[in-house]
Amino acid sequence: MINTDEKLKELRNKNVKFIRPIFVDILGRMLDFTIPIHEIESIIKDGKGFDGSSVEGFARIEESDLKIIPEIDTLTILPWEYKGFENTWREAVVFGNILDTSGKEYEGDTRSLLKSIIEKYEDIGTLKCGAELEFFIFDNDKKPTHTDKGGYFRSGMYGEIRKESQLVLNEMGIKTEFDHHEVAYSQHEIDLTYTNALKMADNIISTKYIVKKIAKEFKKYASFMPKPIATINGNGMHLHLSLWKDGKNLFFDEKKQGLSDIAKSYIAGLIKYGREIQAGLNQWVNSYKRLIPGYEAPTYLCWGTKNRSAYIRVPEYQKGKEFATRIEIRSPDPGCNPYLALSLIHSAGIRGIKERLTPPESVESDIFILSDSERKNLNIEVLSPSLQKAIELFEKSELVKETLTKHIYQKFIENKKIECINFNKTVTDYEIKNYFNVL
């Protein structure tokens, strides 16, 4: 635990003048405000009130008062200095718990939801997670104009944005382990080092903010949109998962020198409930433009050890690295709310363990080259092709209802239904191009 007095002394010694509490709305979009440093002690004790309607997303309700109680363990100093006309100062960011007017945890707070899900299943194991964040670097935020013609591991530009972002993140205590140019033109990836699931969700929010900030300094725009350009690969956010208890990785079986039965049941749960939780992992209309064959994104609910087209990939076991035994779920995209997504993923995986499920046969060849009859023989289901279909399954799911608070469940579905209606009413460029001068 962090000593509060020592932390506050460090803030003052480093010219920190403002604290910026960070939270997300139900859709995972980052929100923040700032408070002067002299208010921090009272806010740690009593919290800071704000207008609660901001956390509703599109489906706003009546104004309601909420407050955030900062978690001092998450407080970190932004490693740059702000300059005004006569003053310079630094700021620190902090995550926290959102409470309602009665002092209870706010039912619309997805961060509190993830904390409760993790605590609920601690007797089985604690979830750890790593993340691969893909993003594009475009010329501006008006349209997706390419900034390079690089490919996988080669010939890209603006690697300095990746490096600068990592240096900033590392200084903030967010460890990174890898970066590279991705497959598509202008596409990049930064990988975040394994940590507990709640901290990883915080780190994902912070990373997206930092990458966008650094790109702006280079006069470019970083986009985590799942599929900004139709004819190239989209952005994924592969999550690497394992369960731990008493210092041991429960996904590793020493006798088998590989994946444990617990890990296989967790996989089976993710596959069985994959279509039901999909709307929480791919939550935008645009998300489903990424999940189509031919662009290295999964469309079938299968798993394999070498198959990168699978919904779940199991990295091959390396002797001496038992701690690294894990599974990789490849369908999420960086547009999702990571707190909501990890809550659903963990609930589905744990359900697989509780039901003692066994996964279907692993698929080691590219799923897209299999015939329909071969897929049928392997009992391979298809992920939903649209947000509208995914929401229908999400809304009916008992697992989803048991995982989410009533407020999050209702408001998330309401938001997504509004999004589908708005999209279906929109006349797209495709329609103009193909119908306007013909019909």
How would you describe the overall organization of this protein?
The structure is a single chain. It is globular, with a radius of gyration of 22 Å. The mean pLDDT is 90. Helix 4 packs across helix 5 and helix 7 (274-281) crosses helix 11. It has two domains: 4-105, Ubiquitin-like (UB roll) (Roll), CATH 3.10.20.70; 115-425, Glutamine synthetase/guanido kinase, catalytic domain (Creatine Kinase, Chain A, domain 2). It has 439 residues and is α+β, with helices and mostly antiparallel strands. Helix content is 35%, strand content 22%. Strands 10, 11, 12, 13, 14, 15, 19, 20 and 21 form a nine-stranded mixed beta sheet that branches.
Question: Mind sketching the topology for me?
Answer:
Blueprint: H1 4-13, E1 16-24, E2 30-32, E3 35-36, H2 40-46, E4 48-51, E5 65-70, E6 76-77, E7 82-83, E8 88-94, E9 96-99, H3 110-120, E10 126-138, H4 159-171, E11 176-181, E12 187-196, H5 197-217, E13 221-223, E14 237-245, E15 248-249, E16 252-253, E17 258-259, H6 261-272, H7 274-281, H8 287-290, E18 300-301, E19 303-304, E20 312-313, E21 327-329, H9 338-354, H10 372-377, E22 381-382, H11 387-396, H12 398-403, H13 406-425, H14 429-435
Parallel strand pairs: 1-8, 19-20
Antiparallel strand pairs: 1-2, 1-3, 4-5, 5-9, 6-8, 7-8, 10-12, 10-13, 10-14, 11-12, 14-15, 14-21, 16-17, 18-22, 20-21
Number of helices: 14
Alpha carbon gyration radius = 22 Å
Q: What is the highest CATH level, the class of the largest domain?
A: Alpha Beta
- Compute the average pLDDT: 90
**Helix amount, in percent?**
25-40%
The counted number of beta strands is 22
Q: CATH architecture of the largest domain, please? A: 2-Layer Sandwich
Describe the global form: globular
Instruction: Name the CATH homologous superfamily of the largest domain.
Output: Glutamine synthetase/guanido kinase, catalytic domain
CATH fold naming of the largest domain: Creatine Kinase, Chain A, domain 2
Low-confidence stretches: none
Give the domain tally: 2
Strand content: 15-25%
Distance between the termini: 68 Å
